[in-house]
Records
---
Amino acid sequence: MWLKDNGYTVSHAKYGEKYVVEGLASNGTSIILNLDVNRTWVDIKGPCLRGDWKKISDDDAAAKLNDIVRTPTPAPTATH
């Protein structure tokens, strides 16, 4: 499993119909995967060095990583 291979302590639990898998790294980073009946989501938290966000933003802009072409999904056509 990627989390264990990268040094995370992994735990899991079930709450009713919901499953939760959590990976916790020694630096305080947590990755939590929530699997519910009607939705799934990921929550990631961790330490950030001052100024990291600015460098990452500048690097993304320089590489045009945020220039994503988005094509609208066609609306479904009614059938009779």
Note: The first helix runs from residue 2 to 5.
---
Amino acid sequence: MMHLRRLACLPDVALERLGLLFKQSIATLKVPIQELLNILTLLGKKSGGSRTIAIMASFYRALMKFFCPEIRAWDAEAASFWDSALAGSSSLQAAVARALKIENGCARGAWVGHELWDMRKFYDSIRLPILCEELSKLNFPKPLMVIGFLVHAAPRILRVGTSFGPIIHSCKNSILAGCQLSCSFARGLLRELMQKLSVVDPEHPCAQHLDDMSHVLIGETESELKHKLVKAGTIVGQEVKRLSLTLADKSTLLPKTKMTEAVAEILNAQGILIRTAETCDDVGVQMTASTVRRASTLNARIAKGSLRGKRTKALVAVNPEAKKLTVVGTCAVQPYGHQAQGASLTQQLSMRKNVKSTTPFAGSSACTTTVIGWTYGANVDPLIKIPLEQIDMWLQLWAGTTRTERHDTRFTWQKHLNKYIGSGCKPLSTMGPAGATINAVLQAGWRPARPDLWHHVDGLSLHLDGKPFTRFRTIAAAHEALQSQAWKRASKNEHGAGLETGIPSFAAARRATKYLHKHGFHKQAKALEFVLVGFFRDPEPDEPGHKAWCKRCGKKARATRRHTVYECPDNENISEEIFRRTNAVLKEATEEHFVLYSVLWFRGIIP
């Protein structure tokens, strides 16, 4: 196996020969016999178990890479609005859009059903003759299709670690995950099925992500919705049978009511397997198709983030550079999909705790906002990151909605605001993106008057008109507002007075830490970090005197931060010149400074 970058570094003579081989393969519809072996490796699944993914031969991968523009052009022509696996599309954004449809339907009192279809061993059950027939209808490039089938039907061998299993010779009824053509093959195979489903309810068409199909159906009456659900399920059953596929037993109909159970019974009697449930994951995003909020999937991700945080901390103890894993590990795993229903304040605080657990200050009473801001930057703080992602998703979602969807969303938005005001301005218990966005806007300190009109506290307004500059300006303003709110919350910590005035600066502390390391004062630099994050606290009022007294001067004075920094006689014994230079600055502190700006005088943060 050779990386394609190494192929690109070959001399011109070799590349010319490689090009001739490409032309010969297309002209003769053959590949070198050495390429007709696929190595299969195991890849873990989130739900448990594993799936196989193929390591294709280097020549074949290079050939498909060369024809990538032609493949992408066919994808763009064959795919439609329902396909979220298309290059440039977002499965998360598509799932949040479906969640908004459900939220709008529930808000206006309509009947909502959600069919989630999944195929059993989809890639392993595709028959190449049937696939060839479906692709031919869509004018798939025939030379690429023939060569692709030739390689997909080639012998396979399983590799586990450094060991190899026996060679599998008969591979005519499956395609390989890992090939550049596989997604295009799946798209072409299911296109006719998707076209038929899209006409069941043109206002609410089915969505597709490879073999996962998600169909939100809304009816004004119970009988109307029941008819649509049965019709859509029957179409799926007929097409699955025609394509010689098999439905997985985890295909689900939401929500679990008497009507949906009756629909499931009708479909099961026809051999179309589907079950009812109160909740189910749609491309990793939890759905309920009702007014009930379910957060078990997000809570599970937060728990997984906690485990990753503990492992990252263990690695940081060996190599401090391992803290970079926090951003791509813990911070990336735990919040995924929160935009569909929103992350509650409790969940956001749990995410913050997981991020803090990767630092040396884990488990301490140090200020979490300062710890995260000092170690990773404010953008990593879930109290800032989560609402900002929610607002950004809403900006994209609103720009892509139709006139009818905007009308329904305005009604839903107003209904949520009435509930918010009626509850005494308590955060909404959200079950959709509209309510979650209201909470995010309120968390920024703004007033969400309408889905497309938000008011600042300073009297300015933001009108969401879908233009790129508006999105940039809104995100920038929200980022600043959320940071201010987070630091205002942090000012309630001990010695945090001054943080409520706005976004503080760590510039002086970073320069001081760098200076101390440069001159060999490594312990002092580490101590400065602990002081900065508020690790050291004043003794509790009920703490026994012998424990609360200062251990440095021997006097019966309580070891408060003020005494330790400004009043302890032992400070005169500090002989290093770089520390003695600060004595003149310390004398400038007044009682008013200690009360209003304790974060500067006791922790070294510039408010």
Note: The chain has three domains: 4-287, 293-490, 501-601.
---
Amino acid sequence: MNSKLKQEIEDLTSLKFFIEGREFQEYFCKPLRAKQDELRLSFFSDSLKDAWKKGGKYQGIEEFFDILKQVNVDLTNKRDELESSEEDKL
């Protein structure tokens, strides 16, 4: 159990460092945030059909960032779980 948990923590930590890295931020997050801002600003000036399409794209980008945020939440939960299981052994 602990070895699996430790591996998950290691994987999530590695993923967290990748997400926070300059390259990921520069080439994925920054362009997606810019696109999200563009979609938000033009949403109300378009026809209903175009607004619907742009709203879907906006939601997709939002979901992507929610997944990235969840990595940190999962990492915190796994660390707490490991700490709790080690305390139970004592």
Note: The chain is about 90% helix and 0% strand.
---
Amino acid sequence: MKCVAFALAVSSACGQSAVVGQGGLLHESEMPKQGHWSIKEGLQGSEVHEVIIAVKQLNKEALHSKLMDVSDPKSPNRYSYLSYDESHLLTANPDAAERIRKWLSDEQITVTKQHKHGHFIHAAANISTLERALSTKFAQIASKDAPETLVIRAVKDVSVPSSLADAFDGIFKTTQLPMFSRPGPVVNAAAFAASRRISLSDLVSPDKIAKFYNVNAPSDLSSSTQSVFAEMGQTYSQQDLEKFLEYYQIDSDVSVTQPSSGPSGHGSDDAKCKSSPNDCMEANLDVQQMVGGAPGAPTTFWYTPEDKSAPYESWITAVSADNDPPKVHSISYGSIEEALSKELMETFNTEVMKLGLQGVTVFVSSGDDGVANFWARSYGSRYCGYHPSWPASSPYVTAVGATMGGADYKVTSLAEEEACSVPQGGVTSGGGFSTVFDQADYQKDAIRQYFSRADTPESGYNPTGRGYPDISMAGNMFSVTVGDQWTAVSGTSASSPVVASFATMVNAERGLAGKPPLGFLNPTLYANPDAFNDITAGNNKCTASSSICCSQGFYEAEGWSPITGLGSVDFRKFAAIFDAAQPHSSTLLV
């Protein structure tokens, strides 16, 4: 899982919006609450900066109820999706959007782009104008890890006129601190190259996944669309993808494309992947596993902007503007809940709910560092504890953990799957309980049963929070080619795109039978626990580094767990719970 973080030393209230309507205060400054970022340089006032305004959306409870209605397997309205316009009109607030546009005009702030239904307004002005309009102060800030990278942010509270405060859900790229790189998928290149007993044929690959997880590939995936999310300067290599497909004898002539509604500039770059393979490791892993798993399916490489400072905000607004988004998305990136703004997480939830209403499925990797998350791997055991990963903790995505054993038998000698954990596994499956979002109704019974069966974990987690992951997949020692060189990679960054490719194949099967796509999966998954390979061994106390293991963590038990969810995905059983017709021309990939 590619990980990103905001500030390190933050309070539990970090990033939450102040109550609006009292003097117009919209966001409190993050700078006094942390010690990892510092002000480097002031601004002259003439610099141009763009912000993203999230207009207050209406009927969010009705949006949730409608999503559950079309997603509940017991509902007569299961699969009765809305159109793009219908889903967005449900929450539209044209009055608020118009009031904000008038205010922007009065303040001489230029609208550069706006959502068709008014949900988001991109606006730009010079710094002095923004400071006056928002009653704040902007500066260039930098993190301790990357002091040479300067980013413009508001370093004082942000306010708007009191009469207008109720029109906003938030103004992004103001007080919200930028993201910076954290460990990506664990590259096992040294162990792979040095080992005399591990060869390329021993690594996890599409053929091993297909055999172990009973994959039946539809004969035609040309109408079943899928997408890989990317950020942090990552790019992929078309040449590497072709080499991967050729080696595993996978027939796919589909070119990976970029979204029409999103930013471009980070598509395939073969030369960069040779000169700087780390800038392609995550992207190549995602693309090769997703395309290799669902060959022939049109695949989108959804990259967010070059400035790297607001990747999720940019993805949210871009995917929200797409009137025909890919039906399956995989996100192999994440941050830590306590270091994020609540308005970002809630805005993400709103847009993902609307995707679900359109029949779109979103998978997110659960992380590679157990319950402690990547702070502990990067900065040591003082960061042990329970630090939930987002967006895996969103109740409207399907979070995917990692297993070892089975498909990687020639590496681990484990015939049966266990929770992936160091030292035997390359990473430790992330999981736990959200400190922001309540436990979802669809998973309450599963979580209650878990606590009645499992060994008691050390205290410090939120037992009433949304539990994640939901399901799991192999995540240890995958083959990847980067810069024309083969290597081994481990992580939930592999697990998520593999499961996403399963959903793409089921969508193809359903499409051939004249049926709608899967949409939001979780209510159906939890209603059918027997469709998964139950994982009963392992824990997630360690990080991806065997030198950092904590006393906090969870233990596997029969049924759902906050390590591997309901278990790993058996394709045939997974397809069956959605009543997916199996085409007569399907072929078992071995």
Note: Confidence is low (pLDDT under 50) at residues 3-22, 192-196, 581-590.
